[in-house]
């Protein structure tokens, strides 16, 4: 068994799904959940996702050999500080944050001597739903997990976190912190910003009730991610601010050019953008 | 039986699905398909969607009591002109175009004495796929079809088109032409413009191969509509230019404000946008 005592700080969609997957694989013993929402923690017990719970992070990590920090990015620093003095000397710590530079900074400031056993991580998986009730063991199957180990990270700690994710049937990839944050700004953070902005723009139009009434399947798919947790996404925008703003600016520049083409009835330009996009999207699909 | 001889000009996803649904409901006799792509027409025969085909629109509408014009918006005027002199005196003509003002303009210029039997229509249904192979009889079930009859439209013609769509299990709604074009610019045309722009922006980044490699389910859903037919969407942008540009400008204004908030670390503003959007999207979902 890979993990004797697994501590999940933040028993939501990601933390809950990881606990389920590891239990299902027979790779973890006891699972301790920690959070602030008692109803959610009790649901975690009923669903068999966690075995015990506490609202005290320091308590939750005692005697744990693997600690998963699955809280919003804005809470990472506080969480690292809260657990530092209760961690076992050989405990491995990893996180699931959607941006890595700020988490690494938080860890460097807060984890003290435990830093070499901290392995920054990010599973590229999720749905627009939140909470332990939304978790399921198969969430990570055939998905990618990016680890961004630091120069001082103990290779044995990284190896154990790689193994852990492999038991969830994910593909594990290592990447530099900055590169991770740029790639994710493009493929995940920017789309979320656009979806939230679109839905809020429409919701503020006077005819909003009627507008949503005539929305079809394409709109439903396009805006699904706007149902994601606003606190989590607020934190991502604050944490990965620079890369996200850069991507928004690339996007806005292209949108401005396309708008000019539409205004000027520039058929070639419009068709070329749409056709290039279709080809790229069809290729991604296959 | 509602329709004796149904003529489908443009045997694609929409035209094909309508023929299938009406056949399945036992509400149409012979179906004549018309298009330029012979392989697609032959596939329509093999799939039992159409009974005969021709590449000549004038031929296709002879003796038809119901004519469905399901071609891209940019081809409507030419199609109306091509069929005018071959239409039966009592034939009812309807279309499925995603913008209505230009279709109405085309019909007024081209249909001559047949104008009172032309009922402009738009089924709010579709997928990102094209061609008769993508068609299915259930496409319109529980979806809305908007009709925008003109002051001179014969109410009996409208009534027959309403009945036709009801046999596909769609809900039929009447609306003014301008209102239709504004509502659809918001819920359908703008999202398509944004999806195409996002995918094209990313495809032009140097690291594009890797970028798409790390895209997850949210990205897949968000960009699905960028696989839609570029000719069809080019024509929609040209036809509904004014309403679309207005919506892009509303969206861009809100995106600029959000970008400023992200740059300035204005947490309240960011959270409020995301939270309002989540509430609006969750409500739409329910």
Describe this structure in words.
The structure is a homodimer of 286-residue chains. Chain A is of the alpha/beta class. Chain A has two domains: 3-175, NAD(P)-binding Rossmann-like Domain (Rossmann fold, 3-Layer(aba) Sandwich), CATH 3.40.50; 179-285, Orthogonal Bundle (6-phosphogluconate dehydrogenase C-terminal fold). Helices cover 52% and strands 14% of the residues of chain A. In chain A, strands 3-2-1-4-5-6 form a six-stranded parallel sheet, sandwiched between helices. The longest helix of chain A is centred in the middle third of the chain and has 27 residues, at 177-203. The radius of gyration of chain A is 21 Å and the shape is globular. The two termini of chain A are 37 Å apart. At the A-B interface, helix 7, helix 8, helix 9, helix 10 and helix 11 of A face helix 7, helix 8, helix 9, helix 10 and helix 11 of B.
Keywords:
homodimer, 286 residues, alpha/beta, Rossmann fold, 6-phosphogluconate dehydrogenase C-terminal fold, 2 domains, six-stranded parallel beta sheet, globular
Task: Record the SSE blueprint.
The structure is a homodimer of 286-residue chains.
Chain A: E1 3-9, H1 13-24, E2 28-34, H2 38-46, E3 52-54, H3 57-60, E4 66-69, H4 76-83, E5 92-95, H5 101-110, E6 118-119, E7 121-124, E8 144-147, H6 155-167, E9 171-174, H7 177-203, H8 208-213, H9 217-223, H10 230-239, H11 241-263, H12 267-285
Parallel strand pairs in A: 1-2, 1-4, 2-3, 4-5, 5-6, 8-9
Antiparallel strand pairs in A: 7-8
């Amino acid at each position: 068994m890979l993990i004797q005592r697994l501590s999940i700080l933040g028993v939501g969609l990601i933390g809950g799904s990881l606990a389920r997957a590891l239990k299902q694989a027979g790779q973890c013993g006891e699972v301790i959940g920690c959070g602030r929402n008692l109803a959610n923690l009790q649901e975690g017990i009923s669903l068999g996702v966690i075995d015990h719970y506490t609202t005290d992070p320091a308590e939750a990590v005692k005697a744990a050999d693997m600690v998963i920090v699955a809280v919003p990015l804005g809470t990472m620093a506080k969480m690292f500080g809260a657990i530092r003095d209760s961690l076992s000397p050989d405990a491995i710590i990893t996180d699931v944050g959607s941006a890595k530079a700020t988490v690494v900074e938080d860890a460097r400031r807060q984890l003290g001597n435990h830093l070499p056993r901290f392995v920054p991580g990010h599973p590229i998986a999720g749905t627009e739903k939140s909470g332990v009730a939304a978790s399921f063991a198969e969430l990570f199957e055939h998905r990618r997990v990016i680890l961004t180990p630091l120069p001082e990270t103990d290779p044995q700690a990284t190896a154990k976190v790689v193994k852990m994710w492999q038991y969830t049937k994910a593909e594990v990839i290592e990447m530099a912190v900055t590169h991770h944050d740029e790639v994710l700004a493009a493929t995940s953070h920017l789309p979320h910003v656009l979806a939230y902005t679109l839905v809020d723009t429409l919701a503020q139009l006077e005819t909003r009730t009627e507008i949503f009434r005539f929305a079809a399947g394409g709109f439903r798919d396009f805006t699904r991610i706007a149902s994601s947790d606003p606190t989590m996404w607020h934190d991502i925008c604050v944490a990965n601010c620079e890369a996200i703003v850069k991507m928004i600016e690339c996007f806005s520049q292209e949108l401005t050019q396309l708008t000019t083409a539409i205004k000027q009835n520039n058929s070639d330009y419009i068709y070329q953008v749409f056709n290039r996009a279709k080809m790229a999207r069809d290729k991604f699909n296959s």
